[in-house]
Amino acid sequence: MTPGQTATDAILNPADFAYLRQVVRDRSAIVLDESKDYLVENRLRPLMREHKVDSLRGVVERMRREPHGALANAVIDAMTTNETSWFRDIHPFNSLPEVVGEILASKPAGAPLTVWCAASSSGQEPYTVAMVINEKFPELAAGHRLRIVATDLSPTMVQRTKSGRYTQFEVNRGLPARFLVRYFQQDGKDWVISRDIRNMVEARELNLVESWGGLPRCDLVMIRNVLIYFSMDTKRAILGRIRKDVLMPGGFLFLGSSETTLNVDDAYVRRDFGKSFCYQALGAPNR
Known about the structure:
Blueprint: H1 14-28, H2 37-50, H3 56-65, H4 70-79, H5 91-105, E1 113-117, H6 124-136, H7 138-142, E2 146-152, H8 155-163, E3 165-167, H9 168-171, H10 177-183, E4 184-187, E5 190-193, H11 195-198, E6 201-205, E7 218-222, H12 232-246, E8 247-254, E9 268-273, E10 276-281
Parallel strand pairs: 1-2, 1-7, 2-6, 7-8
Antiparallel strand pairs: 3-5, 4-5, 8-10, 9-10
Helix pairs in contact: 2-4, 5-6
């Protein structure tokens, strides 16, 4: 607490917590469990100082007055979970070359490859995808035939992805030494990913429960470790939109290790690749 604050200034009353949960769900589809009030309070306290608000109740009161103001937007940003790392859950990235090879085999020679990494946080996933594909299919990058669209709800995370700049702690989380040596340059205490890899990735803001305008048709969609935060209806709607509006015929979908299309959208079929698996829209050509 800051000087002059009381204990009650730094906690949410039940009515204010219920309001916050509803706003976060309406604007981001993230479902905050009723037991997570301590987590919400911890994420809001830095915003009190930043936006010069004396209490958490004051945060809620300003949100009610300015539902799309700077503070309200910062609250939504703060509620997103930005946990990520390089080569997270390694198996999908081990299988990625085989999946990409199958996609390319079904396309005309010289055709481009388009990938969407949704809820991509600070960019480790799309840049991992770019590096893995470049290792096995350098002709895609050389011919400007690889396009990776990285989206996130958080403008802070989108800007971090665009910068391609990571701390020593961040590059220590899952990034093999040979990739660090080949694709990064040290700048002070940080590491900056090479311009060639950065140019493969387009980072933009996108809310999964709002318009997906401008999103291209994709051969591969990675939406990993985000559906777990949504209600069943939201999961069903998102998977349906991907299948109908985003995936190319024969395209593939990667989810997180604890996520599935089973009993959510049965128009996908599971495809196994070594120790990993992904999904293909029902009726798309299986090989």
